[in-house]
Task: inverse folding
């Protein structure tokens, strides 16, 4: 399987790259080596005449190193020879997803399939009433009596539902506070 090598030592003056995580490097497994800092390829699989020797995990290469530094960032793609079977990958995915026959998970944590977790979550939902999810609002009471509705808060006090039942501020203008004794001063149109 192709992997990106991130642990290496780059020596520009010696023209070597040491792959520190590998004991032995094989030329046929190197896909490319690119200097990301200068945006130049040091080695490409299609142009494999730039590597002169490989000793253990040390790669010696030819070519120009003009403008390169030991601290440059390299991208090294190497085939480690490990093949991943697609059947085993598919099997792992199927196991993680689960099947219809999986039992419901018994806790919110642990090892179980996604199907088992969904069964647990669905089991926690209340039974639908007329196709709807019931909602319990413990601090609200609604009663309907002869087309009048009274809604109370959690301490039993009615909540006003019409403008007539709303409390008015002190000194507010109302019909009771209107003085209509001297109607002759009213303007007629």
Result:
């Amino acid at each position: 399987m192709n992997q990106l090598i991130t642990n290496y030592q780059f020596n520009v003056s010696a023209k070597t790259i040491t792959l520190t995580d590998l004991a032995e490097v094989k030329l046929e497994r190197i896909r490319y080596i690119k200097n990301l800092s200068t945006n130049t390829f040091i080695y490409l699989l299609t142009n494999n005449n730039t590597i002169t020797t490989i000793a253990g995990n040390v790669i010696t290469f030819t070519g120009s190193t003009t403008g390169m530094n030991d601290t440059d960032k390299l991208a090294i793609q190497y085939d480690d020879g490990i093949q991943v079977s697609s059947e085993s990958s598919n099997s792992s995915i199927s196991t993680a997803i689960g099947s219809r026959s999986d039992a419901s998970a018994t806790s919110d944590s642990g090892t179980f399939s996604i199907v088992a977790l969904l069964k647990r979550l669905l089991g926690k939902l209340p039974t639908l009433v007329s196709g709807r999810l019931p909602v319990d609002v413990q601090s609200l009471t609604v009663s309907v009596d002869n087309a009048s509705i009274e809604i109370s808060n959690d301490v039993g006090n009615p909540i006003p539902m019409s403008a007539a039942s709303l409390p008015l501020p002190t000194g507010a203008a109302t019909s009771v506070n209107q003085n209509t004794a001297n109607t002759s001063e009213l303007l007629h149109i």
The radius of gyration is 40 Å. The first strand starts at residue 2 and ends at 5.
